[in-house]
Amino acid sequence: MPVTVKEYGPEVQYVTTDHPLDDIFYLLKRDGAVFVRNFVSIEDVDQAYADVKDRLDEAPEWNGTFYPKATARAPAMIARSETFTRTQLMHPIYQAVCDHFLTTRSWNWWGTERKESVSKPYVTSCTALRIGPGAEAQPLHRDDYINHNYLEELSEWHDEPSKRRETAVGLMVAATKVTRQNGGTQFIPRSHLWGSDRKTPPNVDDCVHSELEKGDALIMLSSLVHGGGTNSTKDDYRLMFATFSVRGHLRQEENQYLSVPPEMVKKYDRETQKYIGYFISDPSCGYVNELDPIYTLYPEELKDVRPGF
Ligand SMILES: O=C(O)CCC(=O)C(=O)O
Ligand SMILES: [Fe+2]
User: Fold this and answer.
1) Which of 70, 121, 196, 250 could be disulfide-bonded to 135 (CB atoms 3.0-4.6 Å)?
2) Ligand 2 centre from 216 Cα, in Å?
């Protein structure tokens, strides 16, 4: 654990944007999550919402159980809102947290030289999530399941052995008031220390509920057990922007999506196209517009396909 400059109560903490970064790292290592007040200005979250409202209003229903039917989603936020990208994805605190938890360093012999390589994180998904009245809670999950992360049970975080523990870091920014009643993200504090081999499922009664004002943020490590909450209101919509970043190194050395034009990819058979990268890594890595990327090559097959994986 890093040195703490301040004593904190045992509950998940609310901090402000001028809080020392080392303390934010400490709290994330202790609890797996931290709330940050006034992370983004009201003006900027309103602008980001305005940029995606039409898409949210027209969002197709989710096909599956990961999101309830009453949750409207706007994927690819970077393509939809420059304000979102500038003020959330590139927020200096989120960038510093990702840099701290997701930079991978290794040493290798390079002939007779010892060479250090430093791989930096990058964005993995950005989605607006508007939970509507009547939505049931999401199943509790760890976001790092998409990275097939395998974790040992810990009693507390230790920097050296835990330095590769996290695969990703999430940022949820409130674009409306977020309450327990309207589906605030619920999570189990300190569950990021759990091992992958636990035999019993997480218990929703152990969750705390995010209570946020517009512009506030929840930062969480991807191993934290969490999910969108139930919206038990009649007419209150909960909107949050969800940004995730991941370690930079397990990707194609030669970027096939940019190196091989789609017209060339289309000349190959489906097996080859998949192997080039036009497939979903189970459960959900690689989607385009919430669908298998193969449909970017065959849009005519999209007719009865609904988003979901
Ligand atoms: O909507 C939320 O509060 C959580 C969303 C979430 O957990 C996810 O998309 O993985
Ligand atoms: Fe999640």
Assistant:
1) 70
2) 18
Task: State the distance from the centre of ligand 1 to the C-alpha of 97, rounded, in angstroms.
Answer: 19
Q: What is the CATH number of domain 14-251?
A: 2.60.120.620
> Cα of 184 to ligand 1 centre, how many Å?
9
Bridge partners (DSSP) of residue 240 are 129, 174
Q: What are the sequence ranges of the domains in the chain?
A: 14-251, 252-309
From the number of C-beta atoms within 10 Å of its C-beta (0-12, 13-18, 19+), residue 63 rates as middle
Interior/surface letters 104-142, b for 16+ CB within 10 angstroms, e for the rest: eeeeeeeeeeeeeeeeebeebbbbbbbbbbebbbbebeb
Please give the C-alpha separations between residue 91 and each of 6, 36, 192, 216, 246, in angstroms, as whole numbers.
24, 12, 24, 13, 16
Q: Which atom of ligand 1 sits closest to the CA of residue 185?
A: 3
- From atom 1 of ligand 1, which residue's Cα is the shortest distance away? 228
Tens digit of pLDDT at every position of the chain (309 positions): 545 557 899 999 999 999 999 999 999 999 999 999 999 999 999 999 999 999 999 998 898 888 888 899 999 999 999 999 999 999 999 999 999 999 999 999 999 999 999 999 999 999 999 999 999 999 999 999 999 999 999 999 999 999 999 999 999 999 999 999 999 999 999 999 999 999 999 999 999 999 999 999 999 999 999 999 999 999 999 999 999 999 999 999 999 999 999 999 999 999 999 999 999 999 999 999 999 999 999 999 988 888 887
Residue 40 CA to ligand 1 center (angstroms) comes to: 19
Decide: helix, strand or coil at residue 284: coil
CA gap 292, 270 in Å, rounded: 13
Ligand 1, pocket-test mutation among 185, 237, 239, 284, most atoms within 8 A of CB? 185
Ligand at minimal distance from the CA of 174 is: 1
What one-letter code names the amino acid at 269?
D
